[in-house]
Amino acid sequence: MTAGTVQQLWRWPVKSMAGERVQGLRVDGRGAGGDRTHAVLYEHKGEVKPLTAREAPRLLAWQARYPFNRDGGLDATRPPFAVVTAPDGRAYRWGDPRLRNALAADLGREVDLRRDIAGIQDLERSLLVTTQATLDGLGDELSGPIDLRRFRPNLHLDLDAPAWAELEWEGLEMHFSAGVRLRLLHPGERCAIPTRHPDTQVKWPHLLRHLHAAHQQLFGINARVLQGGRIGEGEAVEIVSPSGL
Question: What is the CB neighbour count within 10 angstroms for residue 77?
Answer without folding.
Answer: 10
